[in-house]
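Worked Example 4.2. Consider the chain below.
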Amino acid sequence: MKSKALCLLLAIMLTFLLTGCRNTQNSTTSLVNEKVSEKRETISEVEKTQEKDSLPKKAYEKKEIQHEVKSEAESVVQKNTEETVLELVQAEKPADKVETVEEKTSETVEKTTCFLSVRCDTILSNIDKLKKGKESFVPSNGIIFAEKEVVFFEGESVFDVLLREMRNSNIHMEFNETPMYKTAYIEGINNLYEFDCGELSGWTYKVNGKSISTGCSKYIVGKGDYIEWVYTCNMGKDI
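Applying the procedure from the previous section yields the following structure tokens:
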């Protein structure tokens, strides 16, 4: 009887121990499964975050590529348009008719000329009045600048023409200019000055054979004018 009771007690204890081991094992397994699930969720969230972060970048890159393609297309269209316009213009005007700016300018701008001369032959008739040392500046024929056709520009004065031609010919010339009044007075040409051949001597000018009372910087040159600069020894009465 005692043996049966002892066996029963041992069986109950063994059953209890086995049940506790199973519960412990189940608890451990459940804990491991929970940890694995949490890890998987964390990984999934990280992947989603990375995917979200990468989306704007990819979209931006795609937009940038589209912009570059559009710009290249516009450039090609513009270039083709310009080439087409140029071809049409050239087609309307034959190659042998194309004029350069220089050619057009040379045709439209007419060269206007006048005639200029400078002489001092009156001194030859008054050589006794000439200051000493000035003889070498008086040409034997009295002509300092022989009559010559020269170019002038619209609006230029007698003074402008004389100044340019004397400089071009390396002939001495001295004048007194007053910019405020836009006037100029000729003092000397070829080192021959006023009063060098008497108290009434000096330079004066004529246009088309007539003595002019207007200042040389005020008289505007006309096409074909004959301008004569002459040295007078008697206030213009001897020319």
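The longest strand covers residues 143-152. The beta strands are 112-119, 143-152, 173-178, 183-189, 192-193, 202-207, 210-211, 226-232. Compare this with Example 4.1 before moving on.
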